[in-house]
Amino acid sequence: MSERTESFPALSEGSRAALVRLLVHGPASRADLARRLRLSPASLTRIVRTLEDSGLVVESETTVPQRMGRPSQAMEVNVDAVHLVGIKLLAGEINLVRTDMRSTVLGHRTIPLQTVPLDPAIDRITEAILAEVAVDPAVGAVGISLAGPVDPSSDMVTHSPFLGWEDVPLARLVSERTGLPTVIENDVRALTAAEHWFGAAAGATDFVLVTIGAGIGCGVVIGDRLVDGNTGGAGQIGHLPITPSGPLCERGHRGCARSYLASSAMVGQASMALHRPDLTYAELVSLAHQGERVASRVVRDAGYALGTLIGLVTAITAPSKVIISGEGVTMVPLVMDVVQERASEVEHWAVPDVPIEIAEFGFVEWARGAAVIALQQLLEAAISPA
Ligand SMILES: [Zn+2]
């Protein structure tokens, strides 16, 4: 992450933990917080006082019942203490959201963007961010997500064929021009971060998010930490082999996950067989829903590929749940039986089946995930050396 975090108060490890607890789990009494964080009442009092002094935590209007004695005043995060800008970078446009600290979307825009040449593209991204700062001076950090391997500990987009970028120090360029701390992250991991703190997996310490649609990816949380992997390459499951025979993907693999499951591959196969060159993904799912033979086969094969991926990731990471998300998620209810059956074939025989859930998905979720990454990095960077 690029520098400049003076605008955000310094935090101790303990105060960050208390703040995160309140963010993820909502208002809590001092006694409850002390118990959850294994702190003495005296330490907790000190922590809450510094958080209150810096405006990050306030006394809630609600009270919480106590096991003994009077109901106690709850503490809660002042969600407007800092606002975040999250951006999902695509080949032809950016999706931008402005959120509060609990990831409530305060504003959303889509802006056309030519990513090549680079300088005008960076100018355009910068202008979009500064326009948000102009209407909302509480904006304190920026997160930018994009597809492919991205190392959030680096400023650099090393290789992004779909943007036409090689070795672009995106986080540094944006930070220099906006004066805001800026972090970059893989889009699927950013979405996973949003589910981890504020979504379907809020508070879960071990879970997996699998996304399907234009891209196939997964985000893994183990021991409450999002796994980035070496140089940010974790979760690139799109080309894992599913069957030795099968369609070809765009990289020439026969029967890989993308060849069955990418929305473009599914539409391509169905449109060819049905002689419908203009077929859309929504129409394909609707035809499968009506029981049309070709569409049903394409969707069931995709379900088999998805079940295989979930089984593999589950066998390796032992999550408490698997969440399926992404713009392609609309086909999953039609084939949940196939997905579940195949996943349990691939998982270890002695391990109980892991629950599989479908997340509600709207396209704004990608940018919202980037805003959550901005917040997480801001809190990480705010920790002062003891
Ligand atoms: Zn492939």
TrEMBL record:
Residues 17-57 form the HTH marR-type domain. Pfam families: MarR, ROK. PROSITE patterns: ROK. It comes from the Bacteria. Coiled coil: none annotated. GO terms for molecular function: DNA-binding transcription factor activity. Signal peptide: none annotated. Transmembrane segments: none annotated. InterPro entries: ArsR-like_HTH (IPR011991), ATPase_NBD (IPR043129), HTH_MarR-typ (IPR000835), ROK (IPR000600), ROK_cs (IPR049874), WH-like_DNA-bd_sf (IPR036388), WH_DNA-bd_sf (IPR036390). Belongs to the ROK (NagC/XylR) family. This is ROK family protein.
